[in-house]
Amino acid sequence: MMESLLQTLLNGAATGGVYALVALGYTLIFSVLGVINFAQGALFSLGGYATYLLMGGRIGVNGAWPGLGLPVALPFTLALLVAALVTALASLLVERLAFAPLRRRGAEPLQSLITSLGAGVVLVNLLQILMGAEGYAFPAGAEALAGLPDMLILAGARIRTIQVLLLAICAGAVVLLSLWLERSRSGKALRAVAEDFTTARLLGIDSDAMVRLAFALSGVLAGLGGGLVGLSVSLTGPYFGISYGLKGLAVLVLGGLGSVPGAIAGGLLMGLAEALVPADASGWREALAFAILFAVLLLRPGGLLGRIQPDKV
Amino acid sequence: MIDNGLLVQMLLGALLGLSVYLPLAAGQLSLATPAFYAIGGTLAALLSTRWALLGGGADGSLPLPSLLLELLLAALLTGVLAALVGGLVLRLRGIYLAIATIALVEIVRVAILNLPFTGGAVGIFGIPQPFADASGYLLPVLGLLILAGWLCQRLEALPLGQAMAAVRDDELAAECLGIDTTQVKLSAFVLSAVLAGSTGVLAAHFLNTWNARQGTFDVSVATLAFVILGGSRTWLGPVFGGMLLTALPELLRPVGDARLVLFGLVILLGPVLAPQGLITPALLERLGSLGRGAGR
Q1: Which region, left, alpha or beta, applies to residue A129 given φ > 0 means left and ψ of -120 to 50 means alpha?
Q2: Are the Cβ atoms of A287 and B265 closer than 8 angstroms?
Q3: Is A160 helix (H, G, I), strand (E, B) or coil?
Q4: Please, which pLDDT band fits residue B291 given cuts at 50, 70 and 90?
Q5: Scanning every residue of chain A, which has its alpha carbon at the shortest distance from the alpha carbon of B218?
Q6: Are A43 and A91 in contact (CB under 8 A)?
Q7: Residues A83 and A227: beta-carbon distance below 8 Å
Q8: pLDDT, tens only, A132-142
Q9: Residue A147 CB: number of other CB atoms within 10 A?
Q10: What are the helix and strand counts (H, E) for chain A?
Q11: ipTM for the assembly
């Protein structure tokens, strides 16, 4: 009993770590531009499929070119990093197509919710046409991670190495990001732009470059998340990232829009809450995040660690 | 090329477009239309297959008054639900409405999939038919569309419609003018929900089967594309967009697989290339003066 509870909690924390990555991706862009990038979930999918293909995975029977694959077979860690680079570039493309033209025109921020949703829908459906709707497991041997065993024994419980690794990588990414935001020169510049777009520009900070930086970083987070989920759970069709993206929105509201610690705490809480849903109600698990979202809106609209910012005139 | 069945689908698309248009006319991005559409359809499917009082015959027929009763009940249910959800969300900034309505669509989808009486993944089938064939549906669907269009047209002259336009153009300014902006946004949201719910009732009978796939995130995207293509400055925009984008994938078969790519491109590029959509008030004015010129 103890053993299974520990496993459940660790599973929940691992999923929660991924939710935190998604929510942080939203938070980076929200704090700079005050809008949500609805394409985040699709970038997450792209990260998973890019990792799969870079590891030597082939397109399945329902894809556009069955049996075709990249002429490379990278080890998982390397594939994950290259995939994160791919999603960073894709995220920059999303900024270029869905955000930059509207920002230049001074359009309503609401408009970029619509355009980024469009970018995400195009991306995920192109993936669907290319790869088919079928599920993919990562190539055999992927689990043999740098000589680590498949299972670890922790306090008498058998735990999948990948879960621990996933949590460690999420934690590492979060810590690095926070340190960078707090300490580095460009991190400070990014926070200055987040505080006040125009003033930062007057102070000589290249605001547009900072916006691109925020998109590239959130793309990296999406790529890491997608690749890690692909390895630990498998890819369940191109829409798997959308599902993480939607739950990331609930996490965002739970933690408080624009709050970095809120995104992390909200992600972990959400992952644990889902893991504790009993097996005979598992069909309802998908709705739990959104039920929590409404509860938060009812009880504490600013989120756990956020505050509602009044609109500026 | 366009048979009666497709024409009914196009009109249903126009109705869903109007449902997305109404909150947008008050500057609010709501993606909840599929949730209320799914609730309306599920209600109709449940009532007409389970409730003997409605008189669903063994031959699969349904008396017309029963259809009207379903419409009334669906409008009531979705209206109350929208008032509850909207009351929770609409005092916050616009982004919260977009997020909360996505959440609502997911909750309703999971509920329809998991509730013990909605038929699970298969759904409810053999829904009784109030009309003998597709052409019979033209009249009620067109009737609902005319009613909704008339309402939208009337709104432009009524205080509520003018307040909606004021909130869309500048919410803070509208508030300073003494407009109860939350109330205005809520009214638009409830109207949108009632329209989507009623459309769901007609769609459930027309389609003959109903399941959780009728109200998904994809439908949010499709219905949003209707409005972005047609334009949200006049109610004719979403009607045009809904009819065109419903017909297009059916008429161009090869597009079938890629229809969501098409919808995605519309909402990615639309706000950049044609911020007002294809049907703008200026265009209507030009058409109007052309018509007068020809008549003279």
Answers
A1: alpha
A2: no
A3: strand
A4: confident
A5: A121
A6: yes
A7: yes
A8: 988 998 886 65
A9: 5
A10: 12, 2
A11: 0.89
